[in-house]
Design a protein that fits this description.
Largest interface: A-B, 75 and 75 residues
Number of helices of chain A: 3
Number of domains of chain A: 2
Low-confidence stretches of chain A: none
CATH superfamily of the largest domain in chain A: YaeB-like
Strand content of chain A: 25-35%
Largest sheet of chain A: 6 strands, antiparallel, barrel
Oligomer: homodimer
Structural class of chain A: mainly beta
CATH class of the largest domain in chain A: Mainly Beta
């Protein structure tokens, strides 16, 4: 057998998620999380997408590009288990895998051509901005949807346990930003309800103020009485932290 | 972005399918199709599989190793459409893709250690013998099972339309072979019922006798009155055609 296999990216993801912190822990959990998949030449021909629009969902096979240099360990500690229990890496969807390849089922909203680029519009993503895409496959429910699959420690979806409220200042800032980013308020609400804090911080009072980058904004919030209070949406210099 | 990404195999598939002809067209269609995934060092440590046994199904991400040198074209002609209609390669699960990466949901029957090798026992596979495996992920029904997904031309499972009968000679040969390969008769029945003939041959009388390699046997059959009649199971010299 070959010692290794080499694959060029066929596309790249453009998404609101500029950093790992805050990203949904699986696809489909945050319906409002949208992204664009830009096909790269020579894979961007219209023929390669013939009849793709008939599919509501796609598989995206991608590279965890921010985990490439981190290496892997045989076990990981999934956030859903509170960060205490060690699980085999092959029993997890962690990015820190022997081959940092990701797999996400996402919703296909549309296919457009803009400025000579062929773009797939996606929703329900958990994909970082800049993610290299290796393959796109149609989701085939007759083979891929196994509703009665037994899934050990991960049977149910992680809960989105937190109530989210917005301070007046944050409301105003978000309303203004919605002009460029429709659905932003609902996106922030869905992301924060899922409690993006690292497992070791959830349930402690050790740190109460947080920020996460979304598009070119810093979303700022506090933990208050077990819920999330969004305090502001601060524009960031473009490309900062990218 | 990097021009390409390099991934070593973490495992290799051992299966009854020694050639492409006759292989199920998707995973899950032939429950009896079994395989073993052998983990390769240094990925074969027990820790990496901790709690994997709690999952009934896995994703196998693999290389279509017999399609590596074939290149890709923007469109393919899926067998289910009779080989007449052209579909975009990204709207298909064809092995002839820009990156020949495969994705199969398979059933996990068990995890064993044999002769110092760590093996996953799989069922419902559509994997060629010798397939290099890039990743193993747990199947998570809450995110992966999208029962109401719309799937264009591929909404329903391909039919398994053919009746399969066995000549007395074939019955006797299969019964003898079942000692080494329990379930062989049912496997042959399920495979042939699905009509493995290329789309351009199905429905024609141009060729009536067929053979496919399964383990180290040549399964021989004829098309008779629109059904399949299995005529023999001939042992092949070991490794021939491998």
């Amino acid at each position: 057998m070959q010692a290794s296999f080499e694959f060029p990216p066929i596309g790249v993801i453009h998404s609101c998620f500029k950093q790992k912190f805050g990203i949904p822990r699986q696809p489909g959990l945050v319906a409002e999380a949208r992204a664009t998949l830009e096909l790269l030449p020579p894979y961007d021909c219209a023929e390669a997408l013939t009849e793709l629009a008939g599919f509501s969902h796609l598989w995206i096979i991608f590279v965890f590009h921010r985990s490439l240099r981190d290496g892997w360990r045989p076990t990981v500690r999934p956030p859903r288990l509170g960060g205490n229990r060690r699980i085999g890496v092959f029993a997890s969807r962690s990015p820190f895998r022997p081959n940092p390849i990701g797999l996400s089922a996402v919703r296909l909203l549309g296919i457009v051509e803009e400025d000579g680029k062929r773009l797939l519009q996606l929703a329900g993503v958990d994909l970082l901005d800049g993610t290299p895409v290796l393959d796109i496959k149609p989701y085939l429910p007759y083979g891929d949807a196994i509703a009665d699959a037994r899934a050990g420690y991960a049977q149910a979806a992680p809960r989105a346990p937190l109530a989210v409220t917005f301070e007046a200042r944050a409301e105003a800032q978000i309303t203004a930003a919605e002009a460029d980013h429709p659905g932003l308020r609902r996106l922030i609400e869905q992301l924060l309800a899922a409690d993006p804090r690292p497992a070791y911080q959830a349930g402690t009072a050790s740190r109460r103020r947080f920020g996460m980058r979304l598009w070119d904004y810093d979303v700022q919030w506090e933990m208050v009485d077990g819920g999330v209070r969004v305090t502001g949406l601060i524009p960031l210099p473009v490309d900062e932290g990218a």
